[in-house]
Amino acid sequence: MIINVSDVLKKRVEREEFNFILKLSEFSDGGEIVQVIEPMKVTGSVRLLDEQLVLKAHVVGVLKLTCSRCLEKFNYQFDMDFQERLSDKYDNEDDDIIFIDNNKLNLTDIIINNIIISLPIKRLCREDCKGLCQICGTNLNFSDCTCKEEDVDPRLSKLKDFFLLIKEVFING
């Protein structure tokens, strides 16, 4: 969604308000493709403050994420507010300010970037997710596996053999 902010920059209006539905099917967060389950509801405004534009927005939606433990897909609802500073002067040295070209503001890119920043680092389908068996890959949320949990560091395998030998000597005499 692109909005024209020339009236705000020229002080013809105090603020430019927006209210729209952002229809995306998916976006990339760098590591994975995130599916958008429902169109996102976006409201907000752009106003001039000390020769900089200030964008304030509220976004609500549902995404499909991949659980970090069990790799199952799950729905993630979000309801977020964010604020950005904008300028039409490219010589600005502040990295936090977004440059506006030709008085046009691409809200879609700004919204997606803010959603990506707000996503949890550890994405869990539920707090008590048991994850996958490290040996056979069974999803432990749905079933148990029959793998032995002998996770021995290969550097210590000789020591393990030694303790098994000692155990055998004491049991068998």
How would you describe what is shown here?
The chain is an alpha+beta fold. It is 18% helix and 39% strand. The protein is built from three helices and eight strands. It has helices spanning 6-9, 107-118, 157-172, and strands spanning 2-4, 15-22, 26-28, 33-49, 52-66, 73-87, 97-99, 104-106. The strands form two sheets. Strands 2, 3, 4, 5, 6 and 7 form a six-stranded mixed sheet that branches. A two-stranded antiparallel ribbon has the order 1-8. Strand 4 (33-49) and strand 5 (52-66) form a beta hairpin. The longest helix is centred in the last third of the chain and has 16 residues, at 157-172. It is elongated, with a radius of gyration of 27 Å. The model has no long low-confidence stretch (mean pLDDT 86).
Protein traits:
173 residues; alpha+beta; 6-stranded mixed β-sheet; 3 helices
